[in-house]
What we know:
Layout: H1 24-43, E1 49-52, E2 54-56, H2 72-81, E3 87-90, E4 102-103, E5 105-107, H3 108-120, H4 122-125, E6 129-132, E7 138-139, H5 140-151, E8 157-160, E9 169-170, H6 175-181, H7 190-203
Parallel strand pairs: 1-6, 2-5, 3-8, 4-9
Antiparallel strand pairs: 4-7
Cofactor: NAD(+)
Protein name: NAD(P)-binding domain-containing protein
GO molecular function: UDP-glucose 4-epimerase activity
Amino acid sequence: SAAIYGEPQTVPVDEGHPKVPVNAYGESKLICERILKWYRRAYGFEFVALRYFNAAGASEHFGEDHSPETHLIPKVLKVALGNSHPVTIFGTDYSTRDGSCVRDYVHVMDIARAHVLALEKLKDLSGRAYNLGSGEGYSVIEVVEMARKVTGVDIPAETCPRRPGDPAVLVASSDLAREELGWKPEYEELESIIRSSWRWMREHPDGYSH
């Protein structure tokens, strides 16, 4: 997970960036990577670590449904469907272009392809770690605005103070994955990611129970 990097010292973040998590989630992911390295050293266990940035979007066949919902894009789209309260924007005083957090969104199908590529090259690349992201950063406010464009709904939003442990900007350099895995995201634009989620959610407004 990209959460292992904590507050970026440089943007975009490459795999050599210091690992200084700022929350328990990031620390747990860093511990997992360390355990994998020990297992490889002790038992010859082969692995490739894929550090997702913000996984998003939905596949046509398998969709996307979380309970409770914690991901920004589906939360925003549920508001558009009328199934949720206004979107909450945590913090508008960050040092970013509009004051809200900036994140790098990578489509779940692009992540799935990276897994296949990593498995195919597991023996050659064992012990390596790769960032998975589009290389483009979008703010929370920009995500809400794009969702309004995609859905045609004036999605209501409200602002609240910052949440502890939220870096201002987290954007990937995925050059290493492109070079060594031969990976390139097909969903490079935020609009295409949101459209894939919106398409599935309109057809399945009650999630997997529909």
